[in-house]
Records
---
Amino acid sequence: MTSTSNGKATDAERTTRGAGTTAVHGDGTRRDEPYHALATPILQSATFTFRDSDDVASYMAQKYRGGAAREEYGRYGNPTVAQVEAKLAALDGGEAAVLYPSGMSAVSSALLTMLAPGAHVIIGDDIYRHTHEFCLGFLKRYGVETTVVPMGDYGALEAAIIPKQTRLIISESPTNPYGRVVDLARLAEIGKRQRVRTFVDSTFATPVNQRPLDFGIDFVMHSATKFLAGHNDLLAGVIIGRADRMAALRESRGLLGGIVDPGAAYLLDRGLKTLGVRIKQQNESALALARYLEAHLAIERVWYPGLESHPDHAVARAQMQGFGGVVTFTVRGDRARTSAFIDRLRIPYIAPSLGGVESLIQQPALMSHYDLTPEERLAQGVPDNLVRFSTGIEDTADLLADFAQALATL
Ligand SMILES: *Cc1c(COP(=O)(O)O)cnc(C)c1O
């Protein structure tokens, strides 16, 4: 296997390279231009110029023949954005990726593009709350119907499919906050047999831990705000899949207008370079903390797909390289005692979001689910003593010591 010093990695090299290498080098293309810069240039330009009218004419001819190799206007594309998209596609093993200014922008734009009045969508019951809300509250106004099926009930999923009407099955794996894991091969098989496309929100896993496209899933989505960017400093979202389908999303993005700023795209590329080492550390700390908490008397229950006690542990072990950085648990006691425990921790910040280098903690009853009554929260599976912890990249021993001191004084 040879490649020239300035060439592109060979196909064989690309398929054997690990996620850590791909996160640094993308698809292996070496770039010398512009200015021989190693770092990705931030092309902070709203528009792109033409040399003369002949240049315009040849660009337009190329564009309408099916694609030009340059940019025209910032809402349709930008070279910095395109470079990050190529890296994200390589990481998840997809043909192409489309980047959006947030995870929800990716979800809403993709669904508005793929669905039309009369269409039917199936979603898992443990899906990201706002994706759920977008389907049931928003798409309904445009004549799209949604059926919610219990996570992991493949019989109910098949029964919910309406021939010729169901267009999409939307799932998440692992889910928020309970880390439920969907059997990706099984989901893909159902989709292919029933001619329904499958869409998996893989935010909690990252391509280091799991690649849904390898199992036959059609679309992978990430809130890149979380682990992919990894530094709690930007919002972005991405969809990855087959080239023709991504071309359709790219076109609708130009119409809907949700494109990422080149500065944010640069920061995402910068964050991605350390993805491999960050996820390794987060996997390790989260598993150690989950085991520690499971054995602690002040803790009622722990949900982490890496624990043998988790309902989906066997599936997770079979299809994941690591189990991710989010640990969810209930404290033995009421809402106030749970808050007291959180307030005694010294390392994690109290904040929504997850996946960054800083550990974050939140009590959903006080934050993400504050607007609900205690009864509604319980019906959604969010008791008052529930805690969601997102592991950062601090030393595992320091995190364990911090939890030990906070629980000892409870
Ligand atoms: C955060 C999150 C989203 C939404 O992403 P934003 O970047 O906040 O818009 C979607 N799915 C999951 C699983 C998330 O954690």
Note: Residues 102-104, 128, 172, 176, 201, 203-204, 223, 225-226, 235, 237 surround pyridoxal-5'-phosphate (CB under 6 Å).
---
Amino acid sequence: VSLQTCMTFFLLWNTIAEILVSLFHTLWELNRTRVFQAGEGRLQHYSMLLDETQERLIIGGKDILYSLNLERITAPHKEIHWPSSEEQVGDCLMQGREKPECANYIKLVQHYNSTHLLACGTGAFSPVCAYIRVGRGTEVNLLLLESDHIESGRGRCPFHPNSPSASTMYRGELFVGLYTDYWENDAALYRLGNRSFIRTEVGDRQQLNEPKFVGSAVIPDNDDPADDKVYYFFTERVANIEGGNKAVYTRVARVCANDQGGQRMLVNRWSSFLKTRLICSVAGPNGIDTHFDELKDVFVLRKKDEKNPEIFGLFSTTSAVFKGYAVCMYNMEDIRAAFNGPFAYRERTDHHWKVYDGRVPYPRPGSCASKINGGQFSSSKEYPDEVLRFVRSHPFMFQAVQPVHRRPILLDTEGGRKLTQLAVDRVEAEDGHYNVLFIGTDNSVVLKMITIYNKEADTVEEVLLEELQVFKVPVPITEILISTKRHQLYVGSELGVTQIRVHQCGLYGSACADCCLARDPYCAWDGFTCSRYYPAGLYTKRRFRRQDVRHGNAVQQCNGLQLSEKLVYGVENNSTLLECRPRSLQASVTWYIQQGVDMEEVKGDDRVIQTPHGLLLLKIAKGDAGVYVCQSTEHGFVQTVVRVTLEVLDEGKVEGLLHKGEEDEGDSPHRPPPCPFPSLPSAPSSSKLWYKDFMQLIGYSNFQQVAQYCEKVWCVSDRKRKKLKGMAPKWRYTPGAEQRARARAPRHTQGQ
Ligand SMILES: *[C@@H]1O[C@H](CO)[C@@H](O)[C@H](O)[C@H]1NC(C)=O
Ligand SMILES: *[C@@H]1O[C@H](CO)[C@@H](O)[C@H](O)[C@H]1NC(C)=O
Ligand SMILES: *[C@@H]1O[C@H](CO)[C@@H](O)[C@H](O)[C@H]1NC(C)=O
Ligand SMILES: *[C@@H]1O[C@H](CO)[C@@H](O)[C@H](O)[C@H]1NC(C)=O
Ligand SMILES: *[C@@H]1O[C@H](CO)[C@@H](O)[C@H](O)[C@H]1NC(C)=O
């Protein structure tokens, strides 16, 4: 009997694997996901704009602009066709370009004013911009290209569809980093205002050297808007001292939003351009750091305090040998400190950078014309030549910006997949704020993770909450936008755009422990089910919430709460376990059985065994039916932990249940388990409930422990143990199954 019972366990494992796989497919069935499929080739290169006020998602594609409903991106949408003229396409082909390149790839969509968007496209290697009337208020369905006001897009949109660019709109002016010419020689940071423009110096390799623009953002310095700064994030080439192999570094550069350039010199050129290096590295064992130098994506996480967003960078190594990815987080405080620190200086290009220790002119180069400078200068045009000359020759700060904790918050060095995109949501949980990272990969998966910093040990724990496959076929994810208001992600690839809810608490099961162990800061157990967590004060009624993201301590949070009443079916002549695990391991447990009005203590024998997990009944008899009460005693404190009603079924009835399961077999993910062991839930047989019950039984930890558990409880002999070990790996090491299983199972990995 004992071996048979253990074997039943192993059979159950197989079923669990199947259930996990099927859960993976339910993303779609649960209505958590909607996919907008664009026309063939429309999203080869594209831009996306989230418009939360008018509840739409604007996508600029190839010769087309879509306006999708934010709530349901699959709802009927609006679109504008905006192809290049035949003449432009003809010219483009004449220049020897390929047909697919000779189209209008809309690379930039920005809010322009309250009624219009600005959209710019490559225009078959002849960039163009247009204003798109979107209306406001009752005109929400409007989408109209102002076709009689098409402007040149030079300096706003690159020529080449593949060319990297980054833009920000601020007070009606466009700040953009891009290559401005056909041959991609002239990289520049531009500002295009109503009548003016300002840019980096042409051909100045000190300012920009083969940059790849990744992102930009306007961040205020203080309450004076005249001090607002625009930050650009990009990579560029740096020649090493020997002048040989050029390395790639990540930079953060900044300019004053109100920069007017100089009057006699630096006319229409930035008078405030400064830059420094962004570091993301891990210390190596022999003092040699591994640097992640190539910025892939950047996310500016805005907070209530607009002046101090958190900056997240997704980096990869540039090494040909070692491939890895890291996410680093930066404080504005540290970024500002670098810009307010010493300037860098070197005598010749083949010398090392040193601290510039000469006199720094006033007003400090790189500062804005504002009250901070005593209100002495109303515009940078009034700055002394000395200041302009200094900033022109010293654009580089000596201090690099180190990440928070001086290390990545997340590392991915396993190889195999590439990480491409990053978005971050700030979530308030019972035990503090968490930054939930959504990381796009090159194989359609979005990883949902949190990282927890342990101050005492100075370690970072990475918790993978979910792996969301957002497209049915593997495709690189090229954009992730997040709507905090709607709890939705909008994930783009060349195939289309997927909308997905950032949480699906119900997926973690309805038990308190499941919910708690998931450690998802969006979710908490509300006494009935795992549901969206709302901080106190928002829905003050819902006070009774169990959540512990930091430690995932389900025992502390949930025991004594869960399973206070339970119905368990046992099969005659078969065995079952009546679970009872008290709050504390130190507690002693006593079982009582209530039959009719009598309540008496259960005395163990060779058929009824008390285990650390509960009461094990072997070879159940009809007379065992009744209400079992588990009481724990600790420090004189007696408490009822569980009341289990045991009903005993005869085998005929069980056969019936089994066959019922076979009837609706096929591909249905809700196939009932093959046998009713260890306990058949009272609810209509749902695989998830059952999975949960089983997980509770084996204590949520490594499945391997079940083997030990079996040994302990049933005293499996050595010979039999070998047999069991041979069976165990059957599903656990099927690579596909394991990967898919991870879609559901929370995994906890230790970072460094
Ligand atoms: C999903 O949505 C469809 C249509 O909107 C609805 O019929 C179906 O019941 C929903 N399914 C779930 C699991 O909510
Ligand atoms: C917005 O800009 C467009 C294009 O320049 C212009 O036609 C329109 O009048 C502007 N709307 C407002 C409200 O200023
Ligand atoms: C540019 O024009 C817009 C309106 O068209 C105005 O709101 C904005 O202040 C102007 N910007 C500058 C720098 O003059
Ligand atoms: C249970 O086992 C006993 C003998 O061990 C047998 O007499 C009885 O018929 C069995 N009951 C069922 C329902 O199989
Ligand atoms: C217990 O139940 C399972 C499933 O119904 C069955 O395969 C097994 O033979 C039963 N064991 C005993 C001892 O009756």
Note: Residues 34-163 form one domain.
---
Amino acid sequence: MEKQKIYNFSAGPAVLPEVVLKEAAEAVVNYDNHSMSILEMSHRSAPIVDMITETRQLIHQFLNVPDNYRILFLQGGASLQFSMIPMNILTDDVTADYTDTGAWSAKAIKEARIYGKVNVVCSSKETVYNHIPKDFEQSSDQVYLHITTNNTIYGTQWFEFPDANGFLVSDMSSDIFSRPIDVSKFGIIYAGAQKNMGPAGVTIVILREDLIGKSGRDLPAMLDFAIHSEKDSMFNTPPVFAIYVVNRTLHWLNHLGGIEEIFEQNKAKAKLLYGEIERNPIFKSPVAKEDRSLMNVPFIFANGGDEKDFLNYCAKRGLVTLKGHRSVGGFRASIYNAMPKEGVKNLVDAIQNYSQS
Ligand SMILES: *Cc1c(COP(=O)(O)O)cnc(C)c1O
């Protein structure tokens, strides 16, 4: 019997392209015909240094990163950036503005408060983060404005970025490489890899050079952007294998046609799924229409229903990890870059057939 194809709609760690998984598996045994596992190779050996350099170049190329930005490969997840950024940037005489658009934003706010003055300029918390606030006032002494470009749990996304009084800092963990962006609008972009580009273990930080080394604080070396930048992310052992998987994912993206092409595919997949949720009387979206994420699609029963039954129904069809986040309930389909259109089509079919069953 042929094994059933599984489509993994997990929010993260999330689906990766099958070809990338195979390349990663091979590299664990024999990296690039060096007769050695990538797990055993020195981060300072030529093949690994070349691979990391190439990964940086691919990011540079895909996002059109201007030359006055540094690309760092760090550890500690996006969660460490919640504190590392204010630690490195926030001084006593200025305010950091934060937009509160979800659980991850709220965590970033909590950490920043340890290091300086924080002003929460807007929040959609009262409506369970079902939209992106549009009108808000920023501090006049603002150093930066923090946004979470895609709210993984609640399924909202910023489609237009606000103009910051200072500069924009952005958590792009769940939508980096999903659409073209103008990096020059941002002072700092950070993203954990395990949503849209690789496995957990590496965090990509893209930061403008002039922001490095300004905090006036004594920082532990591992938490200092200046040290990581000066050492080209080789101050200590970087997460080589995780970076390698990101490298292969970016090659996959390149073969596919790059960011513009994946953006079109992402829009088409989202349209298909939201279209069915809109059409189907049994389900509905809890999210304001204009802010609906192309990456994470939460949906709920319109008039109640047996959630477990629907999840089982989907699981039997190979459609897994569709349970909504515990704070929202219902269902959530994460349809990152690596989720094939076929997977979304199968989910749409399941939603359709379930309501007829
Ligand atoms: C998953 C996620 C995080 C947390 O990432 P870690 O790498 O686990 O620290 C932060 N922000 C967003 C938007 C996320 O989706």
Note: The longest helix spans residues 258-279.
